[in-house]
Fold:
Amino acid sequence: MTVTTTKKNKTNKNNSLKNNLRNITLAGLLTLPCTNALAIETIFNLHKGSESKTAGFSVAVADNFSKGSNFYWSVGYSSLRDISVDWYYNVQVEWLQDIVIDEDKGDLYFNNNTIDATLSYRQKLRGYNNFLKKVTIEYQAGASLGLTDNKFFWTDLNEEKYFSEKGDITPLLAISTHYNFDKKTALVLGLKYQPSFSEFGDISSIFLGINYKFGKVINY
Structure:
């Protein structure tokens, strides 16, 4: 990834469009849970990033599209802390003698909050084994809407660089295993991957959490 800088006085021509897109998307996402309230699921996960410092959490609601369907939608909020961006090796050579943030790696660390919307397919394992009968595999694909502006300002150079902005939309993929304790409660273990997370490049995290269903549960 090649990092470039932006002048402090640069105007962002896309801010208005991004703000409008963000408002429309948020309004749409917030109304989704009201469309099918048969057995709304609430999901809480703790995340551990592939990088040593990165960690966070996510909360979401989910439901299937129709009774007995294996296809689900979900809408949630995610927060990751201490995501690093490695700029040290990409800045212009003449800057290296003047700017050192981390002498070992040159990493900058940021926090990022997103609204995540996904579609998924859940495959319940079959067999005679009692353990396997309680396991469901979920395959997810969707997108994240950025809620955070992350930038760094170089005082000596009077320049700044945005690594992510509010309204940034990035794709996401996830796969998880649900172990169903009963009709309403499941333990969730999975992997989340974002191949292009604004200027941070790819971001991945392992998550562990609980899925609890509210309402009437059918076809269990």
User: Anything to note?
Assistant: Residues 15-31 form the longest helix (17 residues). The longest strand covers residues 107-124. The chain has a mean pLDDT of 76.
